[in-house]
Write a structure and sequence with these properties.
elongated; three-stranded mixed β-sheet; mainly alpha; 18 helices; single chain; 450 residues
């Protein structure tokens, strides 16, 4: 037992307590160099979040002096130094306001306001963030009380991540996105509270002497305050962690359902979208060629709701019989990378242009050979499609046939020639033009003679 106690003994390597306390008090104040470092760290962290650079954000966390007043507040609670506690909380409030102001101004003037993954990562705190803050704070305060500070301090600065949530909160203020502000500021509060609580517990474990003797009532007030802070941070974050767990289980089971019911049966899924937050939860799918009847969809929905993690969900199969085809294409294209999307649009445009060209392209050589067989006097032939605009702004499609004839075509044969061309070209609007005349033959006259 003594060996086990010695193994976890924190008194070995402990620094002089007066010296440690002086160091803590020194790091509380934000004047001169500390204030400059804080403002610069805020700007660096904001730029890192803005350009989605994790390395820059880590650099800002390393140089940030924000942990000073938080550790000071934990120390003050542990030794019942309420003057030090007030000073620590005052400096923490000032540093928080300065950080929020600087980050808000930066994001307000920045031309880049897109939401990046580094920003989003600080908007949904949960119980895991509490664990990180607590154990990070434990390591931090143990390092502060050692003679040899070692490497833990930089690691604690990165792990507890005080600076990025404040910058994200500034982004929320600058862009008017209050959900981002509240989520990020709550994460910042979690980090502050649990770093302070871990400091308080370690100082109590090390049995630092109180600055002044306090009665049982004051000690009870401190314990009640600490307990309320723990509950205030723990309950909402536990709920958020549970919600995150349920969402992950929903996505995992949705993927498993899609794999077993469709992929393994050879159906190619070209579009998949899940929405956990919708009421009811939704799973939307589209397939390359498979079409489902309403009875099949109803059966699949029934099987879907037999899974406890997918209960209350709705399966929507997108197919042009029930949805607009254009909407389906739009959703599918949104799932494709932008470069591939551009290529697809070009391919579609090319196909459309080829179809337009095909409408106006005729095999004139072959047509001439066939025409000469029926009308030997025809020596040249050209066919093209045109739109005739009338004085009443109406548009009449016309298939124009320009021909040359060695001896001319008798008027009796013109109607035959026109009817043959209508039949051969699968149209009903052939208009004949003889090249020598440069004017169309009198079609009406030919009709009268017929």
């Amino acid at each position: 037992m003594n060996k086990l106690t010695a193994l976890f003994n924190l008194h070995d390597g402990e620094d002089d307590r007066e010296k440690t306390l002086e160091s803590v008090k020194k790091n509380i104040s934000y004047k001169g160099a500390n204030l400059w470092i804080l403002a610069c760290a805020i700007i660096i962290a904001s730029i890192g979040l803005n350009v989605n650079s994790g390395a820059v954000v880590i650099g800002a966390m390393l140089i940030s002096p924000l942990m000073g007043p938080i550790v000071g507040a934990g120390f003050a609670l542990g030794i019942y130094d309420f003057t030090l506690l007030r000073k620590s909380l005052k400096n923490l409030l000032n540093s928080t306001l300065v950080s929020l102001t600087v980050s808000t101004l930066y994001f307000y003037v920045s031309p880049f306001k897109d939401v990046q993954s580094e920003l989003l990562a600080r908007t949904s705190p949960n119980i895991y963030d509490i664990l990180i803050a607590f154990f990070g704070g434990v390591v931090g305060v143990i390092a502060v009380t050692r003679t040899e500070k070692g490497n833990p301090i930089p690691g604690v600065a990165i792990a507890t991540a005080l600076m990025p949530p404040l910058c994200t909160a500034g982004y929320g203020l600058a862009t008017g996105q209050w959900g981002y502000f509240l989520g990020a500021f709550y994460l910042y509060c979690i980090n502050c509270v649990f770093i302070g609580i871990s400091t308080f517990l370690i100082i109590k474990y090390l049995k630092y002497p109180p600055k002044k003797q306090v009665n049982e009532k004051q000690q009870k007030q401190v314990r009640i305050t600490v307990t309320i802070l723990i509950i205030a941070m723990l309950v909402p974050s536990s709920y958020l962690a549970y919600s995150l767990y349920r969402e992950q289980q929903f996505k995992k089971n949705a993927d498993s359902f899609i794999d077993s019911e469709f992929t393994q049966k050879g159906y190619t899924v070209v579009f998949k979208k899940t929405n956990f937050k919708a009421q009811p939860k939704k799973i939307e799918l589209a397939f390359l060629s498979k079409r489902f009847e309403q009875k099949e969809i109803s059966k699949l929905n029934k099987e879907l709701n037999e899974n406890k993690y997918l209960k209350g969900s709705e399966l929507i199969i997108r197919q042009d019989s029930t949805d607009r085809l254009s909407a389906l294409k739009g959703d599918i294209l949104n799932e494709i990378k932008s470069s591939e999307n551009e290529l697809n649009e070009k391919d579609v445009k090319i196909v459309q242009l080829e179809k337009e060209l095909a409408k106006n392209k005729f095999d004139n050589v072959r047509l001439l050979k066939e025409a000469k067989t029926v009308f030997p006097s025809v020596t040249a032939l050209s066919v093209s499609n045109h739109e005739l605009v009338t004085a009443k702004d109406s548009i009449i499609p016309v298939t124009a046939v320009i021909y040359e004839s060695s001896n001319g075509i008798a008027e009796d044969d013109l109607n035959k020639f026109r009817n043959w061309l209508n039949e051969r070209l699968s149209v009903k609007n052939v208009t004949l033009f003889r090249k020598q005349d440069e004017t169309p033959p009198d079609n009406n006259k030919a009709k009268k003679r017929k």
